[in-house]
Amino acid sequence: MRRLSLRLRLALAGAVAVTLAIMLSSLGLAALFGAHVERRAVAELSVQLDQVLAGLERDADGALTLAAAPADPRFDRPYGGLYWQIRAGGGVLRARSLWDYEIPLPPDALDDGAEHVHDLPGPAGQPLLAVERRVTLPDRLGGGSLRATVAMDRTDLAAARADFLRDLAPYSALLALALILAGWAQIAVGLRPLGAIRARVGDIRTGRALRIGSDFPREVQPLAAEVDDLLAAREAEIARARTRAGDLAHGLKTPLQALMGEAGRLRAGGNAPAAAAIEDIAGAMRAHVDRELARTRLAMRGREARADVARVIAGLVRVIRRTEAGARLDWVSDTPDGLAAAADPDDLAEALGALIENAARHATARVTITARRQGDRIAIAISDDGPGIPPDRIQAMMARGARADTAGSGLGLAIARDIAEALDGGLTLVNGAPGLTATLTLPAAS
């Protein structure tokens, strides 16, 4: 259940609730219909009982008889479902439909003209709905009292109730479907603010927005406010971290300069190997400090930055051509105009500069730079015709958390990779025939 979406859980709960409500309401309507039908049946039995009593006469022998029977043919058909019975003195008159069966009346006391309604067994064991009345006969009929009963088979009432439920079922199903669809629409409208929050969070992640905002319903606004407060706290923490990194860099700057001075004095004193070792260590320390400062600076920049890829590449190539390593090479650049990456131009220059310097250092005669848009990404490939990098070394350098050497191409590639990952991009290295192709992938500017 935890894996189901909130929308689906609400829809399922609503569908179950609607289905149960419709079923209960249908049963309630059937019960009301049955009660109404029974009341109508009792009223009709009472009328038929009046007809039976109105047809009573005395024959020539003075015996009580029914001179005018009710007109309903079911009274004349054996076990026809409608019955009358009169018990007077020690004798019993009954309808032809009862055949030889006598309805067992309960031993209850009735006032003159009073009626009782009973559930009694019928001639074939079926349940009967019976209306009984005690009547005092007039003098013309010999006086005295009798118990007159008219009954009907309850099976007809049950069949009427079943027919009602059967006729009601399709309308109940249609109503349930309409209510479920209405509930689904209500859920979709009610959860729409959550979709808006998700879109705002995506905008924040991609740099198109800085905060979620406050234009949300009252129930969702506290969540948006908490997320905005969290973003503000994160930005404050990053700002403090950036300040600490800057303080660290400035704090290390003087000791590094002192080390370089000591190296110069050692070199002047004729101890060149020791001076070179100190210079290498100090250079590596400075490179690592610069790398961490670059990562901190990237964390503070939004994705609203925009860098013209062709312009950055052209500037880097102009600079590298002036170096000893770049002057001896043929530079081929295939970068269309108008291609923009979602990155600060300085950050893009730093990442591409590390890759271009690495290519210039290892190329034999040519370096090729191409840039293409691939969907919402921009892929910048830098290829040289040098010896490449051993495959096992590529895997080690591209592994997350791997530490590169302090000399050679490792540090430059690590810096480029860190910048790319900080910008939601990536770096891939592929050996060619010959040479190495480094592909920097960055999000395209919107």
TrEMBL record:
This is histidine kinase. It is an enzyme of class 2 (transferase). Its EC number is 2.7.13.3. It is found in: Membrane. Gene3D superfamilies: Histidine kinase-like ATPase, C-terminal domain (3.30.565.10). GO terms for cellular component: plasma membrane. GO terms for molecular function: protein histidine kinase activity. Residues 247-446 form the Histidine kinase domain. It comes from Rhodovulum marinum. PROSITE patterns: HIS_KIN (PS50109). InterPro entries: HATPase_C_sf, HATPase_dom, His_kinase_dom, Sig_transdc_His_kin-like_C, TCS_sensor_his_kinase. The chain crosses the membrane at residues 171-191. Keywords: Kinase, Membrane, Phosphoprotein, Transferase, Transmembrane, Transmembrane helix. GO terms for biological process: phosphorelay signal transduction system. It catalyses: ATP + protein L-histidine = ADP + protein N-phospho-L-histidine.
